[in-house]
From TrEMBL:
Record's protein name: Aldehyde dehydrogenase DhaS
Family (UniProt): Belongs to the aldehyde dehydrogenase family.
UniProt domain Aldehyde dehydrogenase: residue ranges: 14-478
SUPFAM superfamilies attached to this UniProt entry: ALDH-like
Keyword annotations of the record: Oxidoreductase
Keyword Ubl conjugation belongs to the record: no
Superkingdom as given in the UniProt entry: Bacteria
The organism's taxonomic lineage, starting at the top: Bacteria, Bacillati, Actinomycetota, Actinomycetes, Catenulisporales
Length: 484
């Protein structure tokens, strides 16, 4: 695959940045340049917002029937599937995730989101409400919230772009999508697919660039809504910056998902499941299992098996079919992961396996970190409290099952949690008591287009996916009609 040259997409036209500035994106497995992308300016942000505002009320979009919108979104899903191999390879080269994950999770899920929301286009309904005024009909309408800025992260760029774009378009909004500067390439391809599918000019606009582009969108008075996936720190900045015109804001932020391994759990199944749940995409998943609470009677067995399995995983570039753990996204992020590991050792955690870069042979060129397991960990360590976003797995013991919910909830985050047990009572009790937006029982933390996704506490505001996304991409209007 040749090095790519990409542009902005504004008002239906592919164009360079207004000042001609560009930036490079690198393959995290090799450090080689994958693409050169346009670096949007404040002037480009203004142009994109103007194009979206114009498209929002244009007859070829606002006048489109719900059934016609559905056909457009269904066509997008078909085109994603037609280009699945190319998209998966590009995702792997730009982001680093193993090709099997890029194909089986990222690309497949992106197509399914467009297909799922194509079905919702004809089912976005209002209601008739009995009111106390005589001879009065009251009904509600769901209307587009307006121009939406969709700001996506670098860990699953294609999939998360799809899960924002699909409901926003199903509800009739106009959008500006801004991918993370580390991994913009599959989003560019997705916008090309949207253009090919026949979306009217200006309905979807693409701005590539760094944090300044995102800030300009969040602060822009012509943007009605921001949907952001990323860190809690940036989420707080967005809340403050959106106050100017009281933008609607949806935030899917950080996580520190607990995984509870009950005394009755199948330990071998729990080890296998937690290893995958922790190391999916090299641990660069907001819902990754990142702190493991194991019954003290079984903690040594679990830790030994987990460490042995982690040490045996094949580390390598995502394009190698044998790879089980790929690189992390940038050299800067690699250094941050190592900083967390060094601090954990200094804090007294027992390093069981890993704890260093993988530099054997060709791995030295990339951002590879060995899966790392810690034992002897306490709840007050930074290792347990801070989001690391990498292949680091701390194991903690518990004595009393009654303490589990309290310990699992002792965090600022609340995105996801896992429970491993054969007992339905244990599963349902903990699922009710743990404060997180998604609870996974004996399974991996992979979202689905039909189910709500979002967090409690500092893990975010609002819900994406399922019918719940319709609430955040529409406004409800009440109509009062006196018939006297």
């Amino acid at each position: 695959m040749d090095e790519l040259q990409t542009h902005l997409f504004i008002g239906g036209t592919w164009t360079k940045a207004s000042d001609g500035a560009e930036f490079s994106t690198l393959d995290p497995a090799t450090g080689q340049r994958v693409g050169v992308c346009a670096q949007a300016t404040a002037a480009d942000v203004d142009l994109a917002v103007d194009a979206a505002r114009e498209a929002l009320t244009a007859p070829d979009w606002a006048g489109l029937t719900a059934a016609a919108r559905a056909r457009l979104l269904w066509r997008v899903a078909d085109l994603i599937e037609e280009q699945a191999d190319e998209l998966a390879e590009l995702e792997t080269r730009d982001q680093g995730q193993p090709l099997g994950i890029a194909h089986g999770v990222s690309v497949t899920t992106a197509a399914e989101h467009f297909r799922y929301y194509a079905g919702w286009c004809t089912k976005i309904e209002g209601a008739v409400t009995p009111v106390s005024f005589p001879d009065t009909l009251h009904y509600t309408r769901r209307e587009p919230v307006g121009v939406c800025a969709l700001i996506t992260p670098w860990n699953f760029p294609l999939m998360i772009a799809a899960w924002k774009l699909a409901p926003a378009l199903a509800c009739g909004n106009a959008v500006i999508i801004k991918p993370a500067e580390q991994t913009p390439l599959t989003t560019v391809r997705l916008v090309e697919i949207l253009e090919r599918a026949g979306l009217p000019a200006g309905v979807v606009n693409l701005l590539t660039g760094g944090p300044d582009v995102g800030r300009a969108l969040v602060e822009h008075p012509g943007v009605d809504k921001v949907s952001f996936t990323g860190s809690t720190e940036v989420g707080r900045e967005i809340v403050r910056a959106s106050a100017g015109n009281l933008k609607r804001v949806t935030l899917e932020l950080g996580g520190k998902a607990p995984s509870v391994i009950a005394a009755d759990a199948d330990i071998d199944a729990a080890v296998a499941g937690n290893l995958q749940g922790a190391l999916l995409n090299s641990g660069q998943v907001c819902a990754a299992y990142t702190r493991f609470y194991v019954d003290r009677r079984r903690v040594d067995e679990f830790t030994e098996k987990l460490a042995r399995a982690a040490a045996g995983l094949r580390i390598g570039p995502g394009l190698d079919p044998a790879t089980q753990v790929g690189p992390v996204v940038t050299s800067h992020h690699l250094a941050e992961i190592d900083r967390h590991v060094r601090r954990a050792v200094a804090d007294g955690a027992q390093l069981v396996t890993g704890g260093e870069r993988a530099v054997t042979g060709d791995l030295e060129r990339g951002n590879f970190y060995r899966p790392t397991v810690f034992a002897g960990v306490s709840d007050d360590m930074a290792l347990v409290r801070e989001e690391i976003f990498g292949p680091v797995l701390p194991v903690l013991a518990y004595d009393d099952p009654q303490e589990l919910a309290v310990r699992a909830n002792d965090t600022d985050y609340g995105l996801a949690a896992a429970i491993w047990t054969k007992d339905l009572s244990t599963a349902h009790r903990l699922a009710a008591d743990i404060r997180a937006g998604a609870i996974f029982v004996n399974m991996l933390p992979i979202p689905d287009s039909a189910a709500p996704w979002g967090g409690f506490k500092t893990s975010g505001w609002g819900r994406e996916m399922g019918k719940y996304a319709l609430d955040v991409y529409t406004e409800v209007k009440g109509v009062w009609m006196h018939m006297g």
